[in-house]
Amino acid sequence: MSTVGDIGLPGPAPKRAPASHRVHAPSAMGGGLLRFWSLTFMLARTEFKLRFFGSILGYVWTLMRPLMLFGVMLFVFTDILDINKGNPVPHYPEYLLESLILFTYFQETTSGAVPSLVGRENLLRRVRFPRLVVPLSVALFCLFNLFMNLIVVFIFILASGVTPMWSWLELPLLVGLLVIFSAGVGMLLSALYVRFRDVQPIWEVFLQLLYYASPILYTVQTAADHHFFNIPFSRILVINPIGAILTQARKALLQPSAPSAAAALGGYARLLIPLGIIAGLFALGLWYFNREAPLISEKL
Amino acid sequence: MPAATVPTTPVAISVEHVSKTFRLPHRQYSTLKERALHPFRSTTYDELHAVQDVSLEIAEGEFFGIVGRNGSGKSTLLKCIAGIYGVDTGRISIAGRLSPFIELGVGFNPDLNARDNVVINAIMLGLSRKQAMARFEHVVAFAELEGFMDLRLKNYSSGMLVRLAFATAIQVDAEILLIDEVLAVGDAAFQQKCFEEFFRLKREGRTIVFVSHDMYSVERFCNRAMLMERGVMTKIGEPREIGRAYHELNFGQLAHDAPEESHSADGTAIADAWFEKADGERVTSASQEEELSMCFEASLGQDLSEPVFAVTLRTELGHTILVARSDQHGHSSGSFKAGESVVARFAIPNWLTASRYLLTPSLARQGTGENALALVEDMTSIVIHGASGGGILELPVDVKLERL
Hints:
The structure holds 2 protein chains of 2 kinds.
Chain A: E1 20-22, H1 33-52, H2 60-80, H3 92-113, H4 116-119, H5 121-124, H6 133-159, H7 170-195, H8 199-213, E2 227-228, E3 231-232, H9 233-239, H10 241-253, H11 261-265, H12 272-292, H13 296-299
Antiparallel strand pairs in A: 2-3
Helix pairs in contact in A: 1-6, 2-3, 3-6, 3-7, 3-10, 6-7, 7-10, 7-12
Chain B: E1 11-25, H1 32-37, E2 45-59, E3 63-68, H2 74-82, E4 89-95, H3 114-124, H4 129-134, H5 136-143, H6 158-169, E5 176-180, H7 188-203, E6 207-211, H8 215-221, E7 224-229, E8 232-237, H9 239-256, E9 269-277, E10 282-283, E11 285-287, E12 291-299, E13 304-305, E14 308-315, E15 320-325, E16 335-336, E17 341-349, E18 355-364, E19 372-375, E20 380-385
Parallel strand pairs in B: 3-6, 3-7, 5-6, 11-20
Antiparallel strand pairs in B: 1-2, 1-4, 7-8, 9-10, 9-12, 12-17, 13-16, 14-15, 14-18, 18-19, 18-20
Helix pairs in contact in B: 3-6, 5-6, 8-9
């Protein structure tokens, strides 16, 4: 029992006395960028592993889901309903697929972020770490999926006879805007859900509405003839950031002659509306999350 | 070092008049509909004063224990120091890097294998991914789980889990560690290893705050300790004193409970039972190795020749540790007249292991002792504190090693 002698002996004096600093409640960010990133990446990576662990097809399922949905949609809206009757949309199947996959990103990120803080209660109550990591890891995890899906989208696009274009390089910018928009909404909703549990069902309904209110099954041109208080419906569609991103992606990826988001809105200056919504919701989400962050571990 | 005074070495953690109150709504209104229907009702709260005006300073290199019963606020205080909860009033300052974890195995996921979990846990504790990978081999070697790294955690035993968690946790680079109830599981050999690791951390001059129910580990490791009760710091000082106070808090009141008296028809009764030290002081708790007497007072309702006075000492689980009788070894107890009162004392060297014990006094006619005139089950109790080696007795042992 040689160790018993150590009891009560103070340790050797440290070389320097570190500066004393005050302990605050947990923050939204803080703790250094490296730690923030490695935590976010780790949570996203873990989620990715867990999701596909034990399933035979593994992450092929991430591809299968939107692809199967795409197949059904394509069948229903072209063979049965013929949504583009008299107004043919070039590359409609590719547009449908690409839009579905971009919208799926928004849907998965936001609806995954809603219960994310509550689901991580175990961590939040026991470890000090920047709280914002939690919803952002959802956005990152969904981004992994989006990359996988985009590969398939490009295979379809190339197979349909579209030749690679320089405008394809707009895609990272568009995806970036989509990520900022989704993350902003995700931050806001995750913090709200801690206080109000009915955010979840409300958001599910809202996503359904947004799905039909965004040019996914149809293009802005399809809706051009309709008006809403004298404003062409197509413009309203593009005020919606999702609509703007999908419209611009169509022009950039599939058909250079299609209207850009700016054209659909009627002027470059008006692009500030969807961009402003993206920036505004991101700022709102960040502000609200930051305000709630110190209390999250108590209110869960 | 004088334990109860504030040490003169630099202060690592300073807690100044910290209070933390949780507001518990009478009903949790967590849906919008309920809030809309009852907009004002939700303003009534129960306030739970988890921590009330606690001030203390912990020096660098100190091993500090916080003990208290469930709900005494010790974990809340630890979470405030860790910065997981904000404080309502007062301030907490720390000097040095604080480990961000307070419990072992945080973030462990049963569906992932040990390899992934170690990396996840290490990142949670503040290592980068690279560092976590680099220290992986140490973790595996320390936990002695070389063959199980690809096994999913759901197939681990609880002991293996703790080993893995502990092995990961000690990789953290922090100067101040906060630890909540860690040594509850794990086999004896691994516990010893953990203890040695604690001593290493201590030698390196790390500051450790340790929350536990286990007085033995608090007494063994801590330089100082504090006792919390209902959010208030009731005592701070030497671990042994705190241990005694903690045991009194747990068992003290029980020992004073008025016993049910047992009369026989003629009025023969046991009036009182108690423990006393060698100097005759009555006690409800005692340290090991002091001489201890088990005593009771009987009043006799009839003339008795050679009655048998006896005591039975049991553990709380009902295991009988000792039966002592006045007719042991053919001793004569003598003759007594009706109306007399007799005090019987049974002195023993106190080799009991740290626990609570119950005393059952009895008085019987000469003979078998089966036919008791008076007997009160578990009439009084005592709490023994000190070492607990795992057995029921701490017999003095003389160890000799001979090299052959």
